[in-house]
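Entry 14: structure prediction run for Choline transporter-like protein. Input pasted below.
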Amino acid sequence: MRGPLGAVIGRYPSSDGTTQIGGIIKHNRKCRDVAFLIIFIAFWVAMIVNSSFGFNQGNPLRLTYGLDYKGNLCGDEHADPSLRQLELKYWLNPNQVYQSGVKDSQFKLSNARSICLLDCPIPSEDSLNWVCDYPEGDIRLSKDDWIDRNYDYFEFLTPEMRNASLQLQGPCYPVIFPSVNVYWSCQFIARASNTSLRHWQQMGGVNINEDIVIDKSIHSFINSRSSVLKRYMADIGKSWPVLIVCGGLLPLFLSVIWLLMIRHFVAAMPWFTVALFNILIITVTMFYYLKAGWIGNDAISPIIGEHDPYIHVFGRELNHLRAVAILMTFVMVVSILTSIAIVRRILMATSVLKVAAKVIGEVQALIIFPIMPYAVLAIFYMFWISAALHLFSSGQVVQNNCNSNCCAYDLVSKKVNCDRCCGYSIHYTPHIAVAIFFHLFGCYWATQFFIACSSTVIAGSVASYYWARGETSPEIPFLPVFASMKRLMRYSLGSMALGSLFVSFVESIRFILESIRRKLKVAGTTPDSWFGKMGYHTSQGCWRCVEWTIKSVNRNAYIMIAITGKSFCRASAIATELIMNNILRIGRVNVIGDVILFLGKLCVSLSSAVFGFLMLDTHKYSSGHNKISSPLLPVLVCWALGYVVATLFFAVVEMSIDTIILSFCQDSEEHQGTAQYAPPLLIETLNDQNEMQRLTQ
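Run finished. Output tokens:
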């Protein structure tokens, strides 16, 4: 049985009736959960090593540009020859492209001969254009001259080279099909130029297949799952200014404004928050409809640069946007209906928010304190995102193993070479997937750790206020926030590591189970029976309940750690017992307050998403080198970063309410049901008979 917390915090009546004054928070503490702090430090060392591997092996440009037949990355100025400004991958041999698209063919498009160009070639209207291999050997042309000649030096070829070219073995290849720049690869359009084809046939060239397969082959390659994932990751790298503004600075500004409004306009804030949330959720949904092409003519296009307006190419990203638009429609409807349902309960939220507003007014350093963990997280995220881009591109460039006919004329050896003519690919080993998962887990754990530290510091500051009877007192430290931070750094970092590990572990298990479910669904082995589907959805619901419960227990445990200095598990037990003993008294008020705060966080994060859409809709990100494949992932990252920033700042109100309520429960329990240290406003909120009657109805 635990003793009274009065001996740990603040003034308390002794056995002889006198008041013992020993400071708001006693310092009879010791370090807790040290083993988990050591594990957390070791994990950070492993994170640094893991990231170093990515920085050494990765190249984020691989996420955007392709490889030529020599294994060089398009656009790489250090390649041999230098490919500076030559960023578009072009497949030279149309018959190889066709062969790679034939059903059951053993030939892969990655083995088709490809080079890097400045722009996509188009057929001539009155003659035959050629695209020739990189000039070397007897072809005495500089790279710039080769580009100025539109990659054509057919007139300089010897008779032997011309015969090889007419056999589609190079070094020059005819431009029969028009092509457009689709995500930095030249997508063939299966509309052969009659003029170019007639000239080719008159010269005695081999037969060229004109089937639609030549279009679908490259289209399938560009829209493969791995290619789409690479483009999504590349979008993050290209849109880093958007992430800084909409994911960092904007939510910082909005969160501070929201706290100040809570301080001065607390009665109106619940109504304002609910109304703003509905407006923002509708706005974000409409943006998705716009980019999906269901409203207006602003749908995303995979084509980069100017092109024939009659050419339409669809990417997998458009389907993803349409799926998200449907999902957002469902979320929007549910959100609006839910906000209407809680209108009658908003008055409860107003009453409990008034208590938090008074705390913020008394301990004003709470408004600016979250800037400290915000700055730490900002530095961490910049490092983490950079390392993530390098990890995702850290595969090795290796030559493919193929037994296909890929013979081509070699300008150096001056003959047709059929040895080692296979193309190159980026090979990802299984340990890279493990490194990426480890990196993702590290991000979530670190985020939860910093949020836990911030919440505990706030809880310690608010506890000082409560146990001084809600008044400015000499017993309250001059800077309670920094005093609370000092206690955290000295005694409780291990407890923060343990609590954040619990949440990260549960979330990781849920992620793994969801990945397994998706693979089973693709394989067609998901349960089709009504009983099986019911069991699956029930297990998903139970797992989410477990996750929510752990997060709730963690938050209350952090409060008791700040107050008592106990270990994480012991603090969790104390907090849970207090809540269960007073569930009817505080439950509904606290829940409604949490709902309003959750909507406030969503308002900040949805505002980040809206401004992210607006910034990504500018010319900079819709054309040229910085063109993104889809706003989906950058907007989602802006939303997530905005939510994390809002969580840091809204924890001031959230933890103030929870700390005051838990302290009130303990105060009442120690003094036979009558709280002696509670501020008058809190007593009015929780003990008023009319309020209690309404809560229990």
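Notes: The chain has a mean pLDDT of 81. Will compare against the previous run tomorrow.
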